[in-house]
Amino acid sequence: MGATLGQVPVHVAWISIAPVKGLALQQRESVRLEPYGVRENRRFHLIGEDGRLLNGKQLAPLVRISSEWDEDSARLALGFPDGNVLEGHIELGDTVSTSFYGRRQVEGRLVVGPWSAALSEFVGQPLRLVQPNELGAGIDRAGGGVSILSTASLDALGEAAGVSDPVDGRRFRMLFEVDGIAPHGEDDWAGRRVAIGDAIVRINGLVGRCAVTSQNPDTGVPDLSTLRVIRKYLPIRSTVGRPPIRPTA
Known about the structure:
Elements: E1 2-5, E2 8-17, E3 26-28, E4 33-34, E5 37-38, E6 45-47, E7 53-54, E8 66-70, E9 75-79, E10 85-89, E11 91-100, E12 104-112, H1 115-123, E13 128-132, E14 148-150, H2 151-161, E15 176-179, E16 193-196, E17 199-202, H3 226-233
Parallel strand pairs: 14-15
Antiparallel strand pairs: 1-2, 1-16, 2-3, 2-15, 4-5, 6-7, 6-13, 8-9, 9-10, 11-12, 12-13, 16-17
């Protein structure tokens, strides 16, 4: 898969999705982009007993759990660090409305069965698994199902942080990592259209960062002060048409 901006070739280095918001990212060789994004991406989210949205910011160990989802067969699989896999067809129960960062309400239904209990036991607090009614509704950015980060930006962050190992792009939980542009060159795409494979994507604005980016994407343990480093070396940039928006957990 490739992408172009004008006549400049840009290579797509990797593609990542998370069928359950906050759980480990899954790498894909290809995806189908639809108006709401990728069908299997953030198809489920988690709430606490009080109905509040929860993700890796509050429950970092969630990234140690993998998830696989098939929309056509309604089959979900959760893989836990001890090797156990919980797999089967899901059934939906009561309706529930979840506030996404106080900006919009996402209507959905609770997933019945063993899923919520298994996740609750793993993190040590009650959780409930929810499936939004609408495809793409579980993305943080309402109406923005595509997010992009460049390899060069990660390299610049690593240099500014003084770390020897490459910065793992999974920290930022973006859909695409691209190669072939200057550091933070993707920021200049805001307000423009970019071809990704056969799809044409309009970049609405910049994605705001949060503390999840400081966490190791395999363990959830904070091990890189990304926000401090970014504030120190990267000037604050304005967005196009909207304020900075949160990354997708």
